[in-house]
Amino acid sequence: MSKTDPIADYLTCIRNATRANHPKVDIPASRLKQEITKILQEEAYIKNHVIINDGKQGVIRIYLKYDNDNRSVISGLRRISKPGFRRYVNHKAVPRVFNNLGIAIVTTSEGVMTGQEARKRGVGGEVLCYIW
């Protein structure tokens, strides 16, 4: 795994697990990944998540969600702000993903939140990724 962009690695693990129809995926934990995972659960993109303390870094176990036809609820993930090119927006320019059918995850001075919540609160920040 790449050590330069842990968020891209996180998204890739989820993308690969959903394409392989795995029921769960284990990802090395960090506070930012935990916040993103919490948002995914609140927005009903995943069933559940558990933080496993292994005495070191910890592991986030994400239980993936599928519909009745065994298709993943998450149809796409895209990293927007990268280590070589950070993308910052003000609250008026927070992007809408597929006309609000998806979510943008933004890290702001008030914490990690969806783009819709950032617009409501009137805060901008770094656009981490799109999920639809």
Question: Could you list some keywords that capture this structure?
Answer:
132 residues; alpha+beta; Ribosomal Protein S8, Chain: A, domain 1; Dna Ligase, domain 1; five-stranded antiparallel β-sheet; three-stranded antiparallel β-sheet; 3 helices; 30% strand
CATH architecture of the largest domain: 2-Layer Sandwich
Q: Which radius of gyration do the C-alpha atoms yield?
A: 15 Å
Helix/strand structural class: alpha+beta
Number of strands: 8
**Strand-and-helix sequence, N→C?**
HEHEEEEEEHE
Number of domains: 2
Q: How many DSSP H or I helices? A: 3
CATH class of the largest domain: Alpha Beta
User: How much β-strand is present in the residues?
Assistant: 25-35%
Mind describing the biggest β-sheet? 5 strands, antiparallel
Average pLDDT rating:
96
- End-to-end CA span: 24 Å
Would you give an account of this structure?
The chain has 132 residues and is of the alpha+beta class. The protein folds into two domains: 6-64, Ribosomal Protein S8, Chain: A, domain 1 (2-Layer Sandwich), CATH 3.30.1370; 77-131, Dna Ligase, domain 1. The chain contains three helices and eight strands; from the N terminus they run H-E-H-E-E-E-E-E-E-H-E. The protein has helices at 6-19, 31-42, 115-121; strands at 24-28, 46-52, 59-64, 77-79, 88-89, 103-108, 111-114, 125-131. Strand 6 and strand 7 form a beta hairpin.
Briefly say what this structure is.
The protein is α+β, with helices and mostly antiparallel strands.
